[in-house]
């Protein structure tokens, strides 16, 4: 369809990776798409950012493990420049005494793992098998439209598919999943393992990006959910050019198909005519028209802020007004004049995903401190050196260090203005325990606290998932039962961000599935 003036086939609000996936899919279907982004660059938290001239790195997300191959192939992202600098990246748990622990990916690595932890090896093998069997029940549901939780027939069909899946997987998998739902990951790990290092790593995997400590009810299910998300992906990978390369490839599709991406263009309101979406009004008063509008920003900001509570039923508005807990992860990006040195870490693992996780008890203390606005005594970190595999990120011989910090308060005691430098020094000291001399190698750095992530990348509260990952906020309950299938009370208006099924992470699924929902209603087809 040819665009006429300010009229398009579809408008997408927000140029994070989910919004770009939605726009790219629509563009490949022949729709003329306009993407509107309030910030000065595309990508959101999945962007690549400049630390100082000559040094670039992943803004927030630094690895990809849940981006489906069928989306990559369906959009032909390889033809638009998407490349991988590293695949099947290992996870190594750093130990202060130098006896680092590699989580095994194959038999050879398991043999080394069993030698290091003879008392935990078989229990670990059993746990991996259990989590994967449970995740296999959930994984197929992540890539499809969730059922309408208010539709009895739809729920029956959903349950029938789950029963058939259970029949093929074995009844034991479903029974164990039911037992897992209410339990804490901390209690489960304490019962199964001895190694504090291993328990800390597994608890980290289950709680990263959430506000709960490892002994909170339901955190054991979070480990299953994360494994199910990873099953959607292609293994832990690093994108060539940083995570923003994914968004650049998506933007290339949109531009090639005649679409348009406008930066520094905030949307003031969604225009509705006769209970049907008709476009958007920009902050400068200009109206851009389209019969299909998709919003990749927070559901509350979309429906209460841009659409207006008066367009919703009272109960719907009340459910949306219940704000999710703010984010509790920060990001530290460092430019280094030389490669970091990790004593007794084999060279082949310098590009690995490196975890600093003292113990489950330390993580529980850190979660308590976070709720009280304090910093953890022993911070839990995920460290990656992306310039090991991708030399384009820094000058020759120099490097980028990317660090995700877990359990960081949104509101720091005394305020972030006073606490920012103290926090940075604390994290650098924690890294220096495993990479001595890192302080002397630093050229420059960027710290992104949860409020910074909110302000700079548009994630409400700085929260990765834009909503709780509790069972009552997943599938068709996300963000609420009324909006669990991306649709809204206004025909032609859809949600397509991390606040919708299946949640946050670099997956593209909310954007992909929102377009699927629109197509089923005949609103995304040519």
Task: Describe, in plain words, how this protein is organized in 3D.
With 526 residues, this protein is of the alpha/beta class. It has three domains: 10-46 and 67-82 and 241-324 and 461-520, FAD/NAD(P)-binding domain; 106-232, no CATH class; 326-457, Guanine Nucleotide Dissociation Inhibitor, domain 2. The protein is 37% helix and 16% strand. It has 17 helices and 19 strands. The chain has helices spanning 17-28, 69-74, 107-116, 121-142, 152-169, 171-180, 185-192, 196-207, 219-232, 244-256, 299-308, 314-321, 360-371, 416-432, 438-441, 450-457, 509-520, and strands at 10-13, 33-36, 48-52, 55-58, 84-86, 91-93, 101-102, 238-239, 260-262, 267-273, 276-282, 287-289, 293-295, 329-336, 353-356, 381-384, 399-406, 442-448, 493-495. The strands form five sheets. Strands 7-6-15-16-17-14-18 form a seven-stranded mixed sheet, sandwiched between helices. Strand 11 and strand 12 (287-289) form a beta hairpin. The chain is globular, with a radius of gyration of 23 Å. The model has no long low-confidence stretch (mean pLDDT 91).
What is the alpha-carbon Rg in Å?
A: 23 Å
* Major sheet attributes: 7 strands, mixed
Determine and state the CATH class of the largest domain: Alpha Beta
- Architecture of the largest domain, CATH level 2? 3-Layer(bba) Sandwich
- Continuous helix count: 17
Parts with pLDDT < 50 across at least 5 consecutive residues: none
Taken as a percent bin, the fraction of beta residues is 15-25%
How would you describe the oligomerization state of the chains in this entry? single chain
User: How far apart lie the N and C ends?
Assistant: 7 Å
Structural class assignment: alpha/beta
The amount of helix comes to 25-40%
What is the overall shape? Answer: globular
**Sheet with most strands: strand arrangement:** 7-6-15-16-17-14-18
Whole-number total of structural domains: 3
Mean pLDDT comes to 91
In total, the number of strands is 19
Would you tell me which CATH topology of the largest domain applies? FAD/NAD(P)-binding domain
Superfamily (CATH H level) name of the largest domain: FAD/NAD(P)-binding domain
